[in-house]
Design brief:
eight-stranded mixed sheet, 2-enoyl-CoA Hydratase, Chain A, domain 1, elongated, 15% strand, single chain, 8 strands, alpha/beta, 284 residues
């Protein structure tokens, strides 16, 4: 609000004279990482603008991050986490995360960027682990008489090729990669959540309800974004939703139409199935 001399300020309507606490709200929804050319998931590139706009608002009391994600790319999850922390420290603004359906795996990593985490009693929280999934088609192509021909420089270049029999050495190498990523994840959670409950291994990839997560120190409180912010900052708290700048799904679909449009639509259908599977792993 611009500064007015006291006599003029008294003439303004009451709603303009009152300084309402302001909270920027950023919604982070969906699977993390590239889902398909037509279906953009959460990524650093996709959310950076929204986060910058949120923390640039004047007169901020806090930034609220609404998280609704089953996880996805570890790298993108970590990048988003780090950007939120960097902005919070630069702007000296507290961050609150609000879990909706789920903050699982990478979604929970993002939630851990907040100074406090609030969840619904029925939210799904946790899944602190690393997973890799795929299919093996080597028996299928052998049955229909197809030869797989792969030529590489570097013995590990075709690691876990789904059209060749699984190599135990490849699996061992993958397990090593997973263990390293898991170490980053668990160290981050321990650092950001210092009051984790003792006596239970919370890093097995298991999930809990919001109520169970509070008992284990994974979440600070139960509630929803509107009620919590009104209770903390007053009934007249100014919640500013920072809209994500992206085109409609239909517009993006049409831009991909034309030559190769049918294959793009087919790829989108596969991506939708994979995204649905990510949520299904949580029973949602």
């Amino acid at each position: 609000m611009p500064a007015f001399p006291a006599p003029l300020l008294a003439l303004l309507p009451r709603r303009f004279r009152e300084r309402r606490p302001r909270v920027a709200v950023v919604r982070l929804n969906g699977v993390i990482g590239a889902v398909s050319p037509l279906r953009q998931g959460l990524s650093m590139a996709a959310v950076a603008g929204s986060l910058e706009r949120a923390f640039d608002l004047k007169g901020l009391a806090a930034v609220a991050i609404a998280v609704n994600s089953p996880g996805g790319s570890p790298a993108q999850s970590h990048l988003i986490h780090r950007r939120i922390r960097a902005l919070a420290e630069e702007k000296k603004v507290p961050v609150l995360a609000f879990v909706e359906d789920a903050a699982a795996s990478g979604g929970y990593m993002i939630a851990c960027a907040a100074d406090e985490i609030v969840a619904d009693p029925t939210s799904i929280v946790g899944s602190i682990g690393v997973v890799s999934a795929g299919f093996g088609f080597d028996k299928l192509i052998a049955r229909i008489g197809i030869d797989r021909r792969v030529h590489t420089q570097g013995e590990a270049k075709a690691m876990l090729d789904p059209f060749r029999p699984e190599d135990p050495a490849d699996v061992e190498r993958l397990k090593g990669i997973q263990a390293d990523v898991q170490a980053v994840f668990t160290d981050l959670v321990r650092r950001r959540r210092p009051n984790l409950a003792a006596g239970e291994d919370l890093f097995t990839g298991a999930v809990w309800t919001g109520r169970q997560a509070v008992e284990r120190g994974l979440v600070d409180a139960l509630g929803d974004i509107r009620s919590t912010l009104r209770a903390r900052y007053g009934e007249r708290v100014d919640m500013r939703l920072i809209a994500e700048a992206r085109g409609s799904f239909l517009a993006r679909l049409l831009r991909r139409a034309g030559p190769g449009g049918a294959s793009a639509v087919a790829g989108e259908a596969i991506a939708a199935v994979e995204e649905r599977a990510a949520w299904a792993r949580l029973g949602l």
